[in-house]
Design a protein that fits this description.
The complex is a heterodimer of chains A (309) and B (290). With 309 residues, chain A is α/β, with parallel strands linked by helices. Chain A has 6 helices and 8 strands, in the order βαβαβαβββαααββ. In chain A, the strands form 2 sheets. Chain A has a 6-stranded mixed β-sheet, with helices on both faces. A two-stranded antiparallel sheet of chain A has the order 4-5. The relative contact order of chain A is 0.20. About 30% of the residues of chain A have low confidence. Chain B has a single domain, classed as Dihydropteroate synthase-like (TIM Barrel, Alpha-Beta Barrel), CATH 3.20.20. Chain B has 10 helices and 10 strands. The chains are: A alpha/beta (309), B alpha/beta (290). The interface between A and B is medium-sized, with 23 and 20 residues. Chain B: One of its GO terms (biological process) is folic acid biosynthetic process. Chain B: Belongs to the DHPS family.
Chain lengths: 309, 290
């Protein structure tokens, strides 16, 4: 079975990556360059993009979520021909909801994606994803981006099969997410000593994606992540679920034991059981994974590529 | 310019006022002075200095704005109440403001002789204005976007930051009036950097006239803030020139009160703007007139 997504890219959700917030010089040029390079590399070989991002935690405007805009901007700047579908996950979605959404993405080629509850409540900024006059509106021009993922059961623009192996352009999963915003005294959320371990877990999971590390993302505690201002917990968990290979009754790990979601650290919040996935296989190799925290916020730029079994 | 009369303490001002409010921190860790006036004697000396430099108001704060060690109301009172009394005793005509969001602290400092409650966290304690009304004190209403006191802005966005500022400040002022604060004792402050990124603070500065047009005295707190630092890529300590430029723009737009660290330089800028605008005659003119 081939992977549902040929390419996976994780980029930060920082507003300072957006053109409307650029000063005379960029605030984080290396982060931006790395993110753009990763997106460009992925999209050049897998131009059908599913962009997963979180809703804004404290929306005060009717602008689209920052994550959506970051995705659109990087894709536009890649100057590649692409087709994008946006999937916004509520920033506080439960692990179970993330898993459900992630699994649906693997089946969504031509099918439907049912978003978790409360995704786009009245007044939620995400519901007006492309407000007139907003810079993000022009961000997806190459390839004719799909703009509306904000309704349960939207139809994708791919083939009409629900088979992840169906014929069609190779897909990229673009995940807009970052870690704690409480890494230093000057960080947006001030220093919290728990942030280091949290961010180590996130970075470690991504760096060990080739050996099943992504499953450990499902063990991230939503409440702790909320405390630590981890903006990317929900998108990362959607990604982990989407990339976890479906289990078959005969699947077993090296010890001969059946594996399920979230088996990395034990104590998973995720449902476990037959048929929910194993996540243990080296379905992806890590092309690149860079972490930095220039402003006390963990930024990760990661590029994963599917490998043939 | 909108006609305006407002009162602070026993003094009355009009729309031409450009008042200096000198910052006096009773904190060990504020971002600019880093505890320089933490000791009471040093703080009293600072008050003497800024009075001599021509400040109109002192703004005394017991808690730094940035996140940090939690300071409870009793400790905050210990830091500021007796100090306010000491300042009042030494400077009977000086306008004294206290930077606090807590009603209990507000009551204590008004009893000690303060004139103004600078509610820098935008009505976080709704009882603060009730205390001000009880003492016929002035109140500074501020816009923070509703953030929790002592938090930094993190990815806050507004459709129109100035509209949000106006709506919030009008609502706060109306509520203060409804509980008995005199209309002419209500000051509004867009609160640069509070609940705002640099772009927001710049927008507020650029469009400050929209706040002035509300017909209430406008306070701006610009001094050495991050929006100045990010605009010029300069650290704290190198932001005076940028601060003064923002001060001049704010003065030209008609702001009335300037909360500052550097009194002398601010006074000169404000007087220069007042002279240019025709609100104040030049100090001495002989050129071409002799």
């Amino acid at each position: 079975m081939s992977a549902s997504f040929a390419q996976v890219v994780v980029v930060p959700a920082a507003p300072l990556l957006l053109p409307e917030y650029q000063g005379r010089t960029p605030a984080a040029p290396e982060v931006y360059a790395g993110a753009l390079a990763a997106v460009r590399a992925a999209v050049s070989v897998a131009p059908e993009v599913v962009a997963v991002h979180a809703t804004d935690r404290e929306p005060r405007s009717t602008r689209p979520p920052v994550g959506l805009r970051v995705a659109d901007h990087l894709l536009a700047e890649s100057h590649a021909d692409f087709d994008v579908e946006h999937v916004a996950v509520p920033w506080d979605a439960s692990v179970e909801e993330c898993i459900e959404l992630g699994r649906s993405l693997t089946l969504a080629r031509g099918g439907n994606v049912s978003l978790p509850r409360g995704s786009f409540a009245p007044g939620d900024a995400a519901s007006n994803a492309l407000a007139p006059g907003d810079g993000a509106n022009n961000a997806c021009a190459p390839g004719g981006a799909a703009s509306n993922a904000f309704a349960p059961g939207y139809g994708s623009k791919g083939t009409s099969s629900s088979d992840p192996d169906s014929v069609g352009p190779a897909r990229t999963l673009l995940v807009v997410a970052d870690g704690s915003a409480r890494r230093t005294e000057k960080a947006p959320g001030h220093f919290d000593e728990r942030s280091a371990a949290m961010d180590d877990a996130i970075v470690g999971a991504l760096r060990e994606a080739g050996s099943g590390g992504l499953d450990r993302l499902l063990d991230l505690d939503p409440d702790l992540c909320a405390d630590l201002l981890v903006a990317g917990r929900a998108p990362l968990q959607v990604m982990a679920a989407a990339l976890s290979r479906p289990a078959t009754p005969g699947d077993a790990d090296a010890d001969g034991e059946k594996r399920a979601y979230g088996t990395g650290d034990g104590g998973s919040h995720a449902p476990r059981g037959p048929g929910q996935g194993t996540g243990c296989g080296p379905a992806y190799e890590v092309v690149d994974c860079e972490a930095s925290d220039p402003f006390g916020v963990l930024y990760v730029v990661a590029h994963l590529a599917a490998v043939s079994p | 310019m909108t006609k305006l009369t407002f009162r602070l303490g026993r003094r009355e001002f009009d729309e031409r006022a450009r008042l200096v409010m000198a910052i006096v921190n009773r904190t060990p860790d504020s971002f600019y002075d880093k505890g320089a006036t933490w000791r009471e004697e040093a703080a009293l000396e600072r008050v003497r200095e800024v009075v001599a430099q021509g400040t109109d108001i002192v703004d005394i704060g017991g808690i730094k704005a940035a996140p940090g060690v939690e300071i409870g109301p009793e400790e905050e009172k210990e830091r500021v109440v007796d100090f306010v009394a000491a300042v009042r005793a030494e400077h009977p005509d000086l306008l004294i403001s206290v930077d606090t969001w807590r009603a209990s602290v507000g009551r204590a400092v008004l009893e000690a002789g303060a004139d103004i409650l600078n509610d820098a966290w935008g009505g976080a304690d709704p009882e603060l204005v009730e205390v001000a009304a009880e003492f016929d004190a002035a109140v500074v209403c501020t816009h923070t976007g509703g953030v929790t006191p002592r938090t930094r802005p993190h990815r806050i966005e507004y459709d129109d930051v100035v509209s949000d500022v106006v709506d919030s400040l009008v609502a706060q002022a109306n509520r203060a009036e409804s509980v008995g604060v005199s209309r002419d004792r209500l000051v509004i402050d867009p609160a640069h950097d509070f609940g705002k990124n640099t772009w927001h603070s710049l927008e507020v500065t650029r469009r400050l006239d929209e706040l002035v047009e509300l017909g209430r005295p406008v306070l701006v707190s610009l001094s050495n803030k991050d929006f100045v630092g990010e605009s010029l890529d300069l650290p704290v300590g190198d932001r005076l020139t940028g601060t003064l430029a923002a001060t001049a723009i704010s003065a030209w737009h008609g702001a009335h009160i300037y909360r500052v660290h550097e009194v002398v330089e601010t006074r000169q800028v404000l007087d220069m703007v007042s002279v240019i605008s025709g609100d104040l005659p030049p100090a001495r003119t002989a050129r071409g007139l002799a």
